[in-house]
Structure formats: C-alpha cells, structure tokens
Amino acid sequence: MRGSVDANFLFTLGEVFRLIRVYADKEAARYGITRAQWGVLAKVERNEGMKQTELAEQLEVQPITLTRLIDKLCDSGWIERRSDENDRRVNRLYLKKAARPLLGKLAGLRSELTATALEGISPADAHRLLNQLDQIKDNVRNAIQSPASEPSRKEQRYG
To answer: How many domains is the chain built from?
Structure first.
C-alpha cells in the first residue's frame, strides 16, 4: 500500500466512487439513459408506488431535480405518476411495462460494471470487501448520529 491509511483512505475512497460514476455514466449512455435516471428507475422498481418526496429523500436530491428526472422518464414511457388516493397533492411512482426490458438490460450492465471493478479480486476477497464497506458505512452512520460533544478517540488498528 502506498502511504498511510490515514493520509490516503478518504481520498482513495472518493476517487473510486468518482471513477465508478464516470464509468457508469459512459456505459448507461449505450441505452439512452443517464446514471441518475437509472438510479430513479432502480429505486422505483424496488418500491413501486412510493411517493415522489420519499424518493427524493432516498436519493438525496432536491425535489426539483428529481421532478426533472421523472419528467424525462415519463416522456420516455418508462415511469408514470399516479395521484395518491387520499391526497391529490401527492404523486406516487410506478414503472410502465416498457421499462421492464430496459431494467433487464441495466441489470446486465450492473453485472458488467461490477465485474470490471472487481477484476483480479477473488470472490472471497470481494465478499470481505463488501462486508468491510458495510462496517465503514455503519461506523460513519453511528458517528453522525452520536452527540457532537462526544469526539471519538478510538484506538487505530490499521496501517
């Protein structure tokens, strides 16, 4: 490993994320879709009927940004908005039939992107990496939720 973990961890993690986003944008364009639109489709597929406001929170985007993405997905015939039965101000999101074949292709693309990113890494190491990333995510989530007056002074157990 080049340099200390303390000096390189956050930079490297950010750079990996940036490169994967660029690669996903490039490859998603083959299907006439952006990575952001793909993210919306994937979330709606997992939770059809969700409120537009809930989706904006989950994707951590401003409602106006999401509205523009959904407008494009509606114009392409992949998503539809339906009014909530109990509150006409609320839009719920559903996939249209035409989105299913595209989502199948995108699932294949996701597998390609993952295989490329993990090339040269054994399946056991990939599982270990995923578990470690989950641990990092939990550590950071817990730090965010803990009171600010309690700085963490944990023993360092890495490089």
So the answer is: 1
